[in-house]
């Protein structure tokens, strides 16, 4: 079955890129001990904003759209600088940034997964590409700053939320649902799971080794 990539208006994608730049700047502001300069803020903003799209296209062996189209870099970089300047104000509306972040995750996940499907990638591969598109920016940010990769640690289910939304899209497309409806459904699932995890503290159990139970006789001895 032929699949058309999930597409939204350019201004929505640029808005999402700008939000990523703002998030990168806010994150950089919280790393005061690293003494990040203006260039560093811009780099982190670009990584958070465009990293997922860049990794998506590299994995799919496609020309990176964020490089070939100038507006992505300009908007993301400008938003990062703006975020650094307005950091005290933006920190007060962190809840709004969290909501928008969840929506952007769902949006980029849907775009990435549907692009993979349109190129003939199988369902499992499209799931991986979709998750990369959704959370790749955070991965690049952590690598640049030599931090532990956030989604691999006990936290608020970034990858799970992205995976749930992408899986929803893939299943709906397989059932013949139009890509617009499937993409919107995936976006909603990602947003709900992400915000639910933040609101209620949902996490996966921390890994631990299984240890054999001691016999009662051995305990008494």
UniProtKB/TrEMBL annotation:
Signal peptide: none annotated. It is a multi-pass membrane protein. Residues 11-87, 99-172 form the Glycine transporter domain. The keyword Magnesium does not apply. Pfam families: Gly_transporter (PF03458). The chain crosses the membrane at residues 6-29, 36-55, 67-86, 93-113, 119-140, 152-173, 179-198. It is found in: Cell membrane. Keywords: Cell membrane, Membrane, Transmembrane, Transmembrane helix. It comes from the Bacteria. Its main location: membrane. Belongs to the UPF0126 family. This is TRIC cation channel family protein. It comes from Paractinoplanes aksuensis. The lineage of its organism: Bacteria, Bacillati, Actinomycetota, Actinomycetes, Micromonosporales.
